[in-house]
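## retry 2 of 3
previous attempt timed out at serialization; input unchanged, resubmitting
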Amino acid sequence: MKSPAFAVVIAIACASPAAAEDVPLPIKKPKDRHGQPITKSNDPAAPPAAGTAVPASSPASPSIDGAKGVWPKTLDEAKDEAAAKAEPPPIPTEWPAEEVADALAMCKTILAKIDAVTIAEPQFRQGDCGAAAPVRLLTIGKEPEVALSPPPVLTCGMVGALHTWLTKDLQPLARKTLAADIIKIENMSDYSCRNAYGRTKTKLSEHGRANALDIRGFVTSKGEQAIVLKGWGETKRDIAAREDALRKAAEKAAEEAAKIAKPAVAPSTTAPVNAAAEASGVAVRSTITEGLGADAPKPSFGVSPQHLGGPDAPPQPPPRMMGFLKGAHAAACQIFGTTLGPEANNAHRNHFHVDMAPRKAKKICD
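## retry succeeded, writing output
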């Protein structure tokens, strides 16, 4: 027979729903990917306890199993992230109005102080490439005017630097070495949206900012051409390569001479003969080349390089032409941020590259 107390408990449980809800139910605790219960100490999504310092290096958003971003991530958030990656932001095609205004003001100041015929070009932009106030340069200087062919698109800063180079250095140098004025500068390349030489992913070339010019050569009032490729002469690389080839040719010639100089017969056979000959006073020839006379070839390092199989020195341009081009390059190094020529590398063997890249320490001159 059940006790009265038990019956009372059953009655209360059946009659009062609130009393039944007071009975605690088992709680299913969340577990991590290793099957361990997630607690406040190891829950990556749990906020830090009050007074706990958060390291500066901690990520702004928690991550689970290496996945970046807020966890848990909603389906809409995941779709937005995927769309942002699939559709990169559009490439800018215009410069801010403030930059355009500043560039135009700079142009007005520079062009007012120099002799230059320019045509204002509209601002243009391709991402980081372009110029806020470009001009097309037709001529610089006066008496004579120097034409640029074809007319390059440049910044006004480049126009000012070219004017300084021409009037301060090029014309006096040309009159001294070539006995004539420069009347034309031959343009090989100006604006081009590309990276700097040798860079595939970084560092935009100053050509991409209309802030550089590649010069093939110059023409004088007498019609003479000072072409960089033809008039520079041998570079240090050329001389080093030729000397290395001559050294190898000399070493090979010495090895062949050593083979020729060996006795024609074995020493054991010739020793008695040579001894008897020496005793009788007869001249002894121990090598093939001995006794052939003064005209016989004598292997030696003193033989002219061209007879050793090495390359001969190529014909050099007239000294006055080399003097002008090397002087022009040296003067450019004092004006432009970067000056590259044949000595820099093979890619610049046929032109001068000059640009107005800002330099913190010193100018680049190669």
